[in-house]
Amino acid sequence: MINILNTAKAVFCFSLIFCVTVSYRVFCYLQHGMYIYPSYLKMLVSARICWALGKALIWLCSIKMLTTLISVVNSLKVKAMRAKTFTYRLKYITQLLLDMTPAQREQVKLNIQSIQPEITVGDIIQPIFDISPQCPHCHSLHFNKWGKSGSVQRYRCKECAKTFNIKTKTPLAKLHKCDLWLQYAECMELKLPLRQAAKICNINLKTAFLWRHRFLEAQSEQYKDKLSGIIEVDEFFLAYSEKGTKKLNGDRVARKRGGEVDKRKRGEQVAVLLSIDRSKHMIDGVLADDTASEISSHLEPYIVKDSILCSDGAWAYVSIAEETNCDHKRLISNENRVQDKIYHIQTVNGAIAHFKGWIDIKMRGVATKYLPHYLAWFRESYAGLNFQQMLVAAYR
Ligand SMILES: [Zn+2]
């Protein structure tokens, strides 16, 4: 095709020059009755020169075509060589992997995962939505794609005609700057205080606070863990707090953080239940009152039958152990804190001390109404969730 085009160009040039020359010669003959050759046209008027010029053009075009052809052949050769080299390298790598121990292969897998292209929030959330896609307004399964809002896909329901996206009616609904969520979730994985997280993500404190509690909302409302095997349980108390509230409830007087709490006074302390098993499953709950029925409602549904319950011996746990057919290890006296070297409540007490320290020192105290959120955060951290898993948990 290129060749034909170039030949046509050359023929056109030749014809143009030939026509101009002939026309000029005819014009001169008609005007003067003889041929006149101006000096600058002497070279052009010869048909031989025109023909030579045309040939030269055709030759140049052919050279160009030939070089193009050579470069195409060369690039194909290079591609074939690359494919051959790649196959050879692949065989070599496969052999190396086969020679490795399982631990070394696991290390390779982790290294590969760490160099994967950066994932987006959509990459994490979309697959969860795709498991059971439905309209969040009327639960219809019939909807169409309806453009995009930023990087988020929008849909339109065929039945209720309302539009929605994958975040609609989830705890993450109407939150903006979703490109920063993963970075924020990383801050949460590191359990960073609010100011630090806001500075890292370059967002204001209000947004950081809103994101924190939206990310923890879903997890604070549902327990998925079941406790089995050796289960440790204990309760602890935290001072009631209305941190961040401008107007305190009733006749309460503001107390300085870390100040003395009148333990005899009702409502000055909040009871919290914490229970963990040896597989790192955790159950927690803020108790409305430190009573047997409250403890039972927060713990009993999550205990697998025929487990072993270790407690400080409170009567509430006796009835729970009976109801769930658990062997109850009552670790009451100081001399009897460990039974048969494995039954104790030291793990749960360690977790309680850790939680209290985190809340008091790193978080500088939290409002009691947000305590379930902080317990959820602590639970996620105790289970070793990474930032991506924390985001998945927030979406549910
Ligand atoms: Zn609908």
Automatic annotation (TrEMBL):
<protein>
    <recommendedName>
        <fullName>ISXO2-like transposase domain-containing protein</fullName>
    </recommendedName>
</protein>
<feature type="transmembrane region" description="Helical">
    <location>
        <begin position="52"/>
        <end position="76"/>
    </location>
</feature>
<feature type="domain" description="ISXO2-like transposase">
    <location>
        <begin position="226"/>
        <end position="381"/>
    </location>
</feature>
<dbReference type="InterPro" id="IPR024445">
    <property type="entry name" value="Tnp_ISXO2-like"/>
</dbReference>
<dbReference type="Pfam" id="PF12762">
    <property type="entry name" value="DDE_Tnp_IS1595"/>
</dbReference>
<keyword id="KW-0812">Transmembrane</keyword>
<keyword id="KW-0472">Membrane</keyword>
<dbReference type="InterPro" id="IPR051354">
    <property type="entry name" value="Transposase_27_IS1"/>
</dbReference>
<keyword id="KW-1133">Transmembrane helix</keyword>
